[in-house]
Fold these 3 entries.
Entry 1:
Amino acid sequence: MRLNHLLAAVLGIATALASGPALAGVTEADGDGDQRASFAELTALYPDLNKADFVKIDADSDGFVTDAEWDTAVASGLIDTPAG
Ligand SMILES: [Ca+2]
Ligand SMILES: [Ca+2]
């Protein structure tokens, strides 16, 4: 059904818009859609990110960064957000 595809696309855009203003962060980096960003996914988007910083961002040390962890890291100044 075409309509379902269109609806899914619209919902996807709405979700992306609602996820935050300046910084998409985890959502943008999440290549496999599991709502978490692995080190590989994050470095694909932020090549300057090093493992030490990733470990700091990954507050519960499960090897993935969630939106909450990312927001906390941004709020605490751990992540240098790109200017703009
Ligand atoms: Ca992912
Ligand atoms: Ca984590």
Entry 2:
Amino acid sequence: MFFLLPAVLYNDFFTIAQKKRVGYTVTERRRGICLDVFGMKGAFEMNLLEAAAIRVSRRSFIGPIGEEDFSYLQELAVQYSGLAEVEIRLSHGLAPCFKGFHASYGMFSGVEDGFLLGGAHHTADHMEKLGYYGELLVLEATARGVGTCWVGGTYRQDMLPSTSPELVDIVIAAGQVKQRGLKEKAIYSMVHRGRKSLSQMYRCDETPPDWFLRGVECAALAPSAVNRQPVTFHWMDGRAFASVPDMGDFRPVDMGIAKAHFALAAGGDWQWGNGGNFIPSV
Ligand SMILES: Cc1cc2nc3c(=O)[nH]c(=O)nc-3n(C[C@H](O)[C@H](O)[C@H](O)COP(=O)(O)O)c2cc1C
């Protein structure tokens, strides 16, 4: 099926070779061990699937990211930016962006660092790519004990430590965290109310393969704007694809995030876009 697709579509696939190159070079250089980002081969303190299982949004930070983790994540952000033709970088100096948001949702404290995600070249899939690669960075951070939270609305864009704040589409706050306190647990319970069951996350016309269900299970753990979980995965006519009801608000970002989780667990590659196909590697 993959080989029958027109060349123009082929160009839109993330190539396995590219992703493997990123996974191996960065990890081997930094840690001296091998992590295949998508195949999950090799040893690691915590792999990205384990990170997906324990990740929750963190809003109370006790300090900036440690130096070694900062340069590791920064280097990875640069590599992903090149792959996706977007601009993702890790930055210090985010504290002023979070002054003045007092509603419980979005009540951040101690934010110093964060990823700034954006870029000048807005392709049709720009926001989805930010979601996909941003979430891989979130999971890498989680695996190192760095806390994160995607922030689409509750920050001041005009206070960003960037020469072109208007080119930043979304932020991921990041930093040192300790065990969740009462405030964070309360926000978690509030936003997690009404979370979808697994069966509400997919549609199928026959029993789907195991890899598909593994993918959905991991996607169910993904963060989404106001916990909306707008992505539905489909197994129809022997083909897997993902859709969102519309491309408004942050739904393309949510779709990129959910696709990243799905690909990690299922093993394979996504076609960008609403209704994009998944090509399993098995
Ligand atoms: C695209 C996107 C935008 C978000 N924007 C905000 C935000 O502005 N403020 C905030 O406090 N949390 C924000 N979040 C975090 C979500 O509220 C959180 O992911 C969701 O409630 C699920 O909780 P969890 O991440 O702990 O699983 C955002 C998440 C995503 C994916």
Entry 3:
Amino acid sequence: MSNMQKKTDVILIGAGVMSATLGSLLKELAPEWEIKVFEKLANAGEESSNEWNNAGTGHAALCELNYTSENGDGSIDVSKAIKINEQFQLSRQFWSYLVNSNLIRNPQDFIMPIPHISLVQGENNVSFLKKRFEALSNNPLFQEMEYSDTPEKLKEWVPLIMEGRTSNEPIAATKIDSGTDVNFGALTRMLFDHLKSKNVEMNYKHSVKDIKRTSDGSWEVKVHDIDNGKIENHTAKFVFIGSGGGSLHLLQKTGIPESKHIGGFPVSGLFLACNNPEIIKQHHAKVYGKAKVGAPPMSVPHLDTRYIDNKKTLLFGPFAGFSPKFLKTGSNFDLISSIKPNNLLTMLAAGVKEMALTQYLIQQVMLSHEKRIEELREFIPNVKSEDWETVVAGQRVQVIKDTEAGRGTLQFGTEVISAADGSVAALLGASPGASTAVHVMLEVLEKCFPQHLKEWEPKIKEMIPSYGVSLTENPELFQEIFTLTEQTLGLSEKELAFS
Ligand SMILES: Cc1cc2nc3c(=O)[nH]c(=O)nc-3n(C[C@H](O)[C@H](O)[C@H](O)COP(=O)(O)OP(=O)(O)OC[C@H]3O[C@@H](n4cnc5c(N)ncnc54)[C@H](O)[C@@H]3O)c2cc1C
């Protein structure tokens, strides 16, 4: 065992899409800063960011019904949908900047155009969808959205879903062609390749064990080199804990007051993947339905065309489930070891409040393959069980904290937790997730580097022209940015010969 002391400007813990995005932003804003990355696995993008571990939806609220809710008076609240769409536009702009600057290449290896469709059945759901369409389609960000409740049209949009459908229940869908499928694993790997070429030090198979403040206000990070068993100590003025499900434990080790009274609740995921090329060919969309009553928002069922390893594939899910692990490669003690004296009451309160959710997740985890196929049958009436196999997806650790709604409230969004002096920040939670990585990492910059923002702003605006501007209120700017990013990222469907 050795105990080396190595100094650097920035340490990124974890090689997922969040660290990749923050590192890429910082390399453009402060190229002279020295950055080190520590990742416990052998490669980048192997946990939640991996293409098989998430659904790859470029979340822009084009089809996800849980981003729009019905008010008491029957009107539709679209504020969250607009917010998420604006955030996704920031990602599109930053990715386009990286492509235009030749910092990453071949955008079709990580982003592909795919229609985003919402599909519902039953009178109440159809009425909700129609109202949602009316509320959104006037907004410039959603103006290409189409609505239909005629079976002939729906057969054109989703032939596989309509074939063999005998129910007389009303059915309706909205479609928007400018949706995307994003391979966040490929994107993560591309970003780290780019960072490596800019002298960022990548340390794989290096697991961070502890983080402590030093007398000069920097942070000392204790790292275990898995191959040689040695312990190294590295210090940095700024540490970002981008460890996905591993972030909560590391945040707790910092001991900062902001890390107290926060807990995590893991929700696991499963997909059904189609192994029949004839079926895969018949579907070309991401089709989101409505979450079942009592189901958490992240388990909204969807049938997705995906592009993985330059191959078209078809996934259905995710089925939520319960596992005490915080990472797919984590430990069964993750949940219990995250309970500390300072968050015990918060966790207990959540345990009492979220009994129904826990029961739901346990019941989901017990589902047999045939039961999962029954759920898929609601999407594909003629589904054959043998055409589908189970794929284990990533873990999502939902944040539990004390809010105005009470002690131990489960959160479904992402949270940037940072020290008051901005010297350390962690990202907790996983929704909308990777799609909004650029927005979330800009938040990290705003919280942790306020002293540099004025100097950085012109560069941020060069990379992300809509930074600080509402695109909803500036439809011309939106159109300009949308067309430009569409061209740079190769998202104009006509340009693609892929099928
Ligand atoms: C089932 C599912 C479906 C999803 N669908 C979507 C979707 O459709 N669209 C979307 O935008 N988002 C989606 N998400 C969310 C998205 O995947 C995550 O928000 C995103 O990948 C998180 O990235 P990250 O970098 O924070 O974490 P990760 O990708 O998990 O990376 C964290 C890294 O930190 C490493 N690490 C952990 N602890 C340590 C340690 N102590 N030392 C060193 N390294 C460590 C891990 O090995 C890992 O490589 C989904 C997630 C799941 C689970």
